Amino acid sequence: MAQQANIGELLSMLDSPMLSVRDDVTAVFKENLNSDRGPMLVNTLVDYYLETNSQPVLHILTTLQEPHDKVDTDAIVLTTGALVLVTVLPMIPQSGKQHLRDFFDIFGRLSSWCLKKPGHVTEIYLVHLHASVYALFHRLYGMYPCNFVSFLRSHYSMKENLETFEEVVKPMMEHVRIHPELVTGSKDHELDPRRWKRLETHDVVIECAKISLDPTEASYEDGYSVSHQISARFPHRSADVTASSYVDTQNSYGNATSTPHSTSRLMLLNTPGQLPQTLSSLSTRLLTEPPQATLWSPSVVCGMTTPPTSPGNVPPDLSHPYSKVFGTAGRKGTPLGTPATSPPPAPPCHSDDYVHISLPQAMATAPKKEERTDSARPCLHRQHHLPNDRGLEELPGSKGSVALSDLPGFLGGLASEEDSIEKDKEEAAISKELSEITTADAEPLAPRGGFDSPFYRDSLPGCPRKTHSAVSSAQGTGANPEPLNSALDRLGPDTPKQAFTPIDLPCGGAEESPAGDRERQASLESSILTPSPFKIPPQRGVGFGGGQPPPYDHLFEVALPKTARHFVSKKTEGLLKKAKGNTEEDFMPSASPMEVLDRLIQQGADAHSKELNRLSLPSKSVDWTHFGGSAPSDETRALRNQLLLLHDQLLYERFKRQQHALRNRRLLRKVTRAAALEEHNAAMKDQLKLQEKDIQIWKVSLQKEQARYSQLQEQRDTVVTQLHSQIRQLQHDREEFYNQSQELQTKLEDCRNMIAELRIELKKANSKVCHTELLLSQVSQKLSNSESVQQQMEFLNRQLLVLGEVNELYLEQLQNKHSDTTKEVEMMKTAYRKELEKNRSHVLQQNQRLDTAQKRILELESHLAKKDHLLLEQKKYLEDVKLQARGQLQAAESRYEAQKRITQVFELEILDLYGRLEKDGLLKKLEEEKTEAAEAAEERLDCCRDGCSDSVTGHNNEEASGPNGETKPPRPGGARGGSGSRGGGGGSSSSSSGGSELSTPEKPPNPRVGPCSSRWETAVGEPTTGIPMTVGSLPSSKSFLGMKARELFRNKSESQCDEDSLTSSSLSETLKTELGKDSGVEAKPPLNLDGPQPPPPKPDSVGQLRIMDYNEAQHEHS
Amino acid sequence: MTEDSQRNFRSVYYEKVGFRGVEEKKSLEILLKDDCLDIEKLCTFSQRFPLPSMYRALVWKVLLGILPPHHESHAQVMMYRKEQYSDVLHALEVIRFISDATPQVEVYLYMHRLESGKLPRSPSFALEPEDEVFLAIAKAMEEMVEDSIDCYWLTRCFVNQLNNKYRDFLPQLPKAFEQYLNLEDSRLLRHLKTSSAVSKLPYDLWFKRCFAGCLPESSLQRVWDKVISGSCKILVFVAVEILLTFKIKVMALNGAEKITKFLENIPQDSSDAIVSKAIDLWHKHCGTPVHSA
Fold first, then answer.
1. Where in the cell is the protein located (chain B) (predicted)?
2. Could you tell me if B134 and B196 lie in one domain?
3. Is residue A176 helix, strand or coil?
4. Residues B198 and B262 in one domain
């Protein structure tokens, strides 16, 4: 306890906000878990987690290690786990895929577990486990076929697993078809989330059911009609086993139909409530389960169905109404569920049908019960209803092999459950026996059941167990169906969804599936205490437990004739024994674990009932309130475990049922929609008819209109023809008139022509008259003429005569002189001929000469062309050379220019130097030589003037020759500047150059003249352009020149020169400076065209020359 | 063109890849191979393409008339030029106008003045504006040409060309400058006008001295290629391009004096790009010169 408290504390500390504390506690827990191998701590943790949802605990639990996580050997836990897995798998197809390997491993281990049976697991548990493994197999194969098959391949290819495969897995595989995914899909495709997205949970379940061949699991829809055949074949296999029993049932049926028919009719009075109830149960089944699933479940409940899976076994006449029953039942079910589509059909007729079929079957089952009762006689009271129940169970089993495996299994489940409940209350001996039965698979001695039948349920509340009578039961049944019916009626208008729930409510949520049924059976026992069994929750039912003999056995007594029952029971007993043996030995491997489980349950139920029969009822009722009290603990546990297992199974089945319900809901929706569409179609058809009627009316009116139209057309045609004939007549008239008018016109024209002709004739006559007159005058003239001609003729004739005479005279003379002339003519002819030949040869000669001359001309012409070409080339070359020479000449000239400039500079320098030299001397002799200097200056000036004039003429010549020789640059400065020293270069300038040469040598020796000459030099050197021009235009005269020079000087130096002309030295000085100033600053005075300025172009000088000329002329004139 | 057949077939790709001048050098060599140089063709070539530096002096001399078109007379003419140069130099020395200490550029100036007959009386005369132009150009030319004779002749003839051939065009260049600047960037011109710097821009430096002293010689000679080959309009585009290049700075400056001062002393590092862009601009506005013959 101390440890417990400690753990409690620790657990509370585990959720403390302190991280360190939490870590510490976690560490403590882990340590504890490692050291302690007991499950206690783990269990405590789990409990705590369930209570508080504590995350740290979850963490600890998830990190559990050995030995706590080892495989539990408890079959119950395993079975539960497997079933939970099977249930959960369709819900998490996508998220579960990462644990696929684990699932497969679970399957592998469980399957091997089934075979090896480790520990002391009882066979019963194993059967449960096997069933759950089988379900798991189906689920896994249905959901992940490729992966699962590959797992199977890999897992069972190992030798150690081979046995398991042979024993466990292989039989399972016999109950599945080849999954289409194995052909079309792949491992990855299976895990593709898109595959699962489309499917809901119940879709997945149905998918899994589709591939199952096991009739308990299989689903026969959506193109799986083959499964019908398979399932039909499946019963065939067991047909040999059940054949006889089947025949028996047939016989019994025949009996039932022949004799009990009337009784059943009578019974209708008694069982009106039952039938609706069965119907309702059937309908609920139809609602909740696919039709295929109803193959067995309703039959179990009602005990009246023959499985449609074995149509071959059922006589055609029987199968027909049977299927009809199904159809009607189905139809009935749907109206109840979906009242919106169609109102619930009138129950009488259907129920009538139903009764017809169901009752015989119920009767057919009865004999079985009788047979059972025979076998288990001990308690007569019980025998009455138990065999009945047994018969209910047995009947489908004998009818179809599927039922053989399923229905008893189903009921067996119920029985075992009840057993487990009831056994708790029974003594140890019973339990021992029971265990014997379960292990040895003992044949069911005492047929039991009936708890599950609706009759039993119905009758339970009303009548006490012992004193029930036909009347009371009838009352009970009569009383019970009413609320049910009313409930159903109430449900009727509800939506299909609600159709389930109300049934859920009264039945405590246990009636939806076989499992629910089973549970309900369990609850029924406790339901005795409650006024309405439907309201009792199944859990409570389980809790209470305890079974009471069904109170409705008397019904069967009434319903079934004993003889038939006896006969059938006898027959079936033997066959059943045989079948049991067969199924146990031969059929077992192929039988599905479900069947085995079912059978186990059934056997358990039988055993239980047997044991129960031994007990006195009161003692049983005493023990009901609790269980496990008196019984040995292990037995009790075993029983409890079995109960748990059954509960698991129940829950699993319920889950399946829910999935089916969901599916049905969808299907119903489809049906509703289809019906709505049909109605819509009908409405559309009506509309169509109406419209067709309209169309016909329109057609009739159209025909009328057409007739009227044709009539009008005819009228119009006649009028038109009349008018046409009128027009034709009028046209004819018109043509006649036209012809007449034309005739008249032609006549008129004829007349006109005649008139014209007559006029012409008149004119002709007139002209003739004129003509004749003219002729007359002419003739008269001619006459006069001819007269004069006649006169002349006469005169000429006379002359002719005279001349003839003269001619004759001359002829005579000529004949006398004719002889000498011929010779002379011949001579002349020859002479001419010769001359002609001569001339001809001459012509020939001339022609030849002409030819040669022409040739010669051609030759010469070509020569000429060549010459021309050559000449051209020469010219070009000459040009080239000229150009070259010109370039050189230009260079040379520029050089020459430079040289000239240099000399000028030199001269200037020299003069400057002279000036300085003489400055001193001059200053001294200034006074004395003043006059002399002036004279000398005058002389010098004159001399210079001579030279200058000459040079100017030369310059002029040069100027004149300028235009001719273009090579010479138009630089008057050349003549101007060099006038002193080098001259213009022209022939005429040679004398002047001589003159200038004369003058220049004069300069140096004559110092007195120096200043003046230098002055002149400057005047000549610089302003030459001005002077030659002024002079050049006029004949040179010394006096004039002098005057000009003076004028010039006066212009420049104003009156200074005039006044102080004798003070030459100073004058020269001033002149020089002034000139310098002029050259530098002002180049503008009209006559001051001196040097520093670049030599003006020739046209300018000419222009100035002219201007000067004009000015001079003006001056002279003035 | 006749030399098309001799052209390298890769020429198309050279230009695509960006190698300029490979073909131009070749075609220039073909041009120079002729006995008698075609001055017009040379002009066109020089206008269209940048001259290879190894032929630049020769082409300039021919274009400026220092050398005649005939190859045969080159030697002789060059000899004349040389003699003329030495004569003038000698004369200057004789009259003690120059001494060894006189800077070469001034020597060129005196020689030029002497040759044009404008030699002043004494070396210490006041320099006139045109003399300063001459000095600037001579200074730039001195950097470009090694031989002093060549330098003198090129300077002299270049100045003569400016004074004769372009005498009428040069005064119109400022107007053209404004016009093209307006086309290229009217905002800049507006800025210049608002700061009344348009009239105070260094037109003398740009158009009279032809950027001598403004641009480094390596870029300058590419401008002068165009000037010598007969287009003084390139000067306008160089000026426009200078303004465009330094637009941001010029826009930042407000005073006319500042702008002028900045433009007179522009940074030299981007001059090559300026010249290239200016030539592109010139081609863009005036079209690529095509040989008219």
1. Cytoplasm, Cytosol; Cytoplasmic vesicle; Lysosome membrane
2. no
3. strand
4. yes
**Location of structure tokens 């140096």:** A1004
DSSP string of A1050-1103, one letter each residue: HHHHTHHHHHTTT-HHHHHHHHHHHHHHHHHT---STT---TTSPPPPHHHHHH
Interface touch B80/A883, C-beta < 8 Å: no
Give residue-wise pLDDT tens across range B101-131: 888 888 888 888 888 887 777 777 777 888 8
B198 domain-assigned: yes
Residue B3 lies in a domain: no
**What whole-number distance in Å separates Cα of residue A1022 and Cα of residue A1042?**
17
Q: How many CB atoms lie within 10 A of CB A73?
A: 12
Residues B134 and B193 in one domain: no
In terms of CA atoms, which chain B residue is nearest residue A907?
B95
Work out the minimum CA distance from B65 to partner chain A, whole angstroms.
9
Query: Smallest Cβ distance to A895: which of B67, B69, B80?
Result: B80
At residue A312, what is the residue type?
A: G
Tokens in use for A343?
Answer: 């109102």
Q: Is the peptide bond before A378 cis (omega within 30 degrees of 0)?
A: no
| Contact across the interface for B91 and A880, Cβ inside 8 Å | no
**In one letter, which amino acid is B226?**
K
pLDDT digits 0-9 by tens, A934-988: 666 655 555 545 544 444 444 444 444 434 444 444 444 433 433 333 433 333 3
CATH code of the domain containing B55? 1.10.8.680
Question: B178 and B57: one domain?
Answer: no
Measured between CB atoms, does A878 come within 8 Å of chain B? no
- How far is the C-alpha of A149 from the C-alpha of A182, rounded, in Å? 8
* CA gap A309, B232 in Å, rounded: 118
Residue whose C-alpha is closest to residue A137's, from A99, A111, A102? A111
In this structure, are B109 and B138 located in the same domain? yes
A677 vs B: CB within 8 A = no
Tell me the pLDDT tens digit for each residue of A1032-1081.
344 444 445 445 545 554 544 444 444 444 444 444 444 444 444 444 44
Residues B53 and B160 in one domain: yes
Cα–Cα distance for residue pair A134/A151, rounded to 1 Å = 16
Whether B121 and A1076 lie within 8 Å, measured CB to CB:
yes
Check: CB of residue A1029 under 8 Å from CB of residue A952. no
ipTM for the assembly: 0.73
Nearest-by-Cβ selection for B91 from A883, A897, A905: A905
User: DSSP state, B2?
Assistant: G
- Please give the model's pTM, rounded to 2 decimal places: 0.34
CA distance A1094 to chain B (A): 7
Mutation target among B35, B61, B88 for the A interface, most CBs of A within 10 A: B88
A303: region left, alpha or beta (phi > 0 left; psi from -120 to 50 alpha): left
Q: Count of domains in chain B?
A: 2
Q: Which of A90, A85, A102, A69 is nearest to A142 (CA)?
A: A90
Checking phi first, is residue A631 left (phi over 0); if not, alpha (psi -120 to 50) or beta?
Answer: beta
Distance of CA B98 to the CA centre of its chain: 28
Q: Which domain holds residue B195?
A: 170-286
Instruction: List C-alpha distances in Å: A840 to A353, A837, A843, A847, B105.
Output: 162, 5, 5, 11, 96
Alpha-carbon gap, residue B75 to A887, rounded angstroms: 12
The pair of three-digit structure tokens given for residue A962, joined into one six-digit string: 């300028």
Shared-domain flag, residues B180 and B216: yes
End-to-end CA distance of chain B: 11
CATH of the domain at B224: 1.10.472.80
Q: Are residues B174 and B157 in the same domain?
A: no
- Residue B281 inside a domain? The answer is yes
Q: Do A904 and B117 touch (CB under 8 A)?
A: yes
Choosing from B164, B180, B203, the residue where a domain stops is B164
Domain endpoint, select from B120, B135, B164: B164
Crossing angle of helices A75-88 and A633-817, rounded to 10°: 30
